[in-house]
Amino acid sequence: MLRVFASGGFVLDHKRKTLQVYSWALYDWANSAFATAVMAGFFPVLFRQYWSYSQDVTVATFRLGVANSLASICVAVLAPLLGAASDLFNKRKSFLMAFAILGMAMSGALYIVPKGQYLVAGFLYVLATLGFMGGNVFYDSLLLDVASPNLLNRVSALGYALGYIGGGILFAIGVGMVMAPAFFGFSSKTGAARAVFLLVALWWGLFSIPLFLFIRERKGVPNDSIRKWGQDLIKTLKLMAGERRVWMFLAGYWLYIDGVGTVIRMAVDYGMSLGLNSSDLMLALLLTQFVGFPATLLFGRLGEWLGAKRGILVGLGGYLTITFGSMFIMKARDFFVLAIAVGLFQGGVQSLSRAFFARLVPDSREASYFGVYNMLGRFAAVLGPFLMGLTTFLTKNSRMGILTVAGLFLGGACFLVFTRESEGK
Predict the structure, then answer these.
(1) Poorest-pLDDT segment among 14-18, 184-188, 352-356, 400-404
(2) Ordered structural domains, the chain, with CATH
(3) Distance CA 232, CA 81 (A)
(4) Among 42, 63, 338, CA closest to 174
(5) Contact criterion met (CB below 8 Å) for 361 and 367
(6) Which of the 8 DSSP states describes residue 362?
(7) Which of 69, 189, 240, 420 is deepest in the core (most CB within 10 A)?
């Protein structure tokens, strides 16, 4: 244990804290490869063109929405239980590692799924998404181990910003592989696209290593009693119910983060249903990543200037504009414009929401509260993809499906407006 006696010791202590901050943020760089290249990019394309190749486009959209919803239901059920367990057993890093390995393994396994096997592909995708989102319960809760209260906005934004760059670089490599498969040693674009799943698994694993090596989570008193585990969860829910600003924020977050998640997961499928070329859609998505990096960092500063609540509302206003604008997409150029707009607001809304909630969390209950936070966020992700897929299927019109997202942003913004501005622990 480092003991600080002199100024040199303070420098060493500062360097250690900086190392932990960047090690934590680098996990976002690692697992964003899955969010970008699998969830948002190549899985929707291959699911429609390879694993569901013989089906009507509206049927493929509905199936994709169901797959996303099932993964979200699993995390919604598990998140609060896992959060309470990790607080009691002091094993947040261990839980994070287990879920990350699940996500990596299932992502890599998508490479071997044969053509036409949409059920197998969907099952592996649900498990991979469970690994990704379940791990984020523990990753988010570690924010309070590495950042002091006055730096929560900035450190949270750093994580999302590095996620944009890391996910963007991996996605750029994948797009290059698909556009020039022979150069990378593949016989077809489909073979190159499938290989991206293997690349994601390797990337995710490699850049997760610093978090597990350098972050020291705060220790409490472990308790292996299952009864105590359940009692702790019930206590957490009762505490939240008695804190108006907590449940008001979570109600709004439940709605608007669903809209954000739906845009991430269904945008490429939506563009393909309008007849746009998949290569153009991939390039637009890649552009989103690199616009998102500086925009997310700026939102971190915006949160310090305006406050996290006002910063989130700015982002939701941007998303409402994007949603209505997407109704009028006619050409790839229109999709590119909206992709840039998504990059401007996506990371800011996510990072400021995490930082805003972190200020509401009582000491020693970080993972328990973040378990519920992630439960609501992931449970909300059940609603958007399913409603969009179902509306598209019933109306046979993708433009009607996208309208369901606007209501989620509006409802979330209304709850947030009436959440008390006061912050601080």
Answers:
(1) 14-18
(2) 17-212+232-417 (1.20.1250.20)
(3) 9
(4) 42
(5) no
(6) P
(7) 69
From the list 294, 408, 279, the residue with the least C-alpha distance to 343 is: 294
Task: Quote the CA–CA distance of 346 and 339 in Å, as a whole number.
Answer: 10
What burial class does residue 132 get, using C-beta atoms within 10 Å of its C-beta: 0-12 exposed, 13-18 middle, 19+ buried? Answer: buried
Neighbours of 280 (CB within 10 A): 15
Per-residue pLDDT at 220: 55
Calpha distance 75→370 (Å, rounded): 13
Residue 218 has what DSSP assignment? P
Phi/psi of residue 363, nearest 5 degrees: -60, 145
Instruction: Determine how many CB atoms are found less than 10 A away from the CB of residue 180.
Output: 12
Phi, psi of 350 (to 5 degrees): -65, -50
pLDDT score recorded for residue 3: 37
Q: CA separation (Å) from 222 to 88, 145, 363, 366?
A: 5, 17, 16, 15
Name 150's Cβ contacts closer than 8 Å, sequence gap at least 6. Answer: none
29 neighbors 161 (Cβ within 8 angstroms)? no
Distance CA 254, CA 221 (A): 32
DSSP H or E run through 153: helix 152-179
pLDDT level of residue 195 (50, 70, 90 thresholds):
very high
**CA–CA distance, 233 with 231 (Å, rounded to integer):** 5
Find tokens 């709850």 and name the residue.
415
Task: Say which DSSP state 219 is in.
Answer: P
Helices (H), 180-277: 189-214, 226-241, 244-273
How many Å apart are CA 379 and CA 364, to the nearest integer?
Answer: 25
240, 247 contact by CB (below 8 A): yes
User: How much of the chain exceeds pLDDT 70, in percent?
Assistant: 85
Smallest CA-to-CA distance from 60 within 44, 71, 37 is with 44
| 199 within 8 A of 175, measured Cβ to Cβ | no
Q: Which two tokens stand for residue 409?
A: 């942003």
CA atoms within 13 Å, Cβ hemisphere of 287 = 16
Query: What is the value of pTM for the model shown?
Result: 0.73
d(CA 231, CA 74): 22
- Hey, is 124 helix, strand or coil? helix
| CA 275/CA 302 separation, integer angstroms | 38
Which residues have CB under 8 Å from 181's CB, separation 6+? Answer: 187, 188, 189, 191, 192
Length of the chain: 425
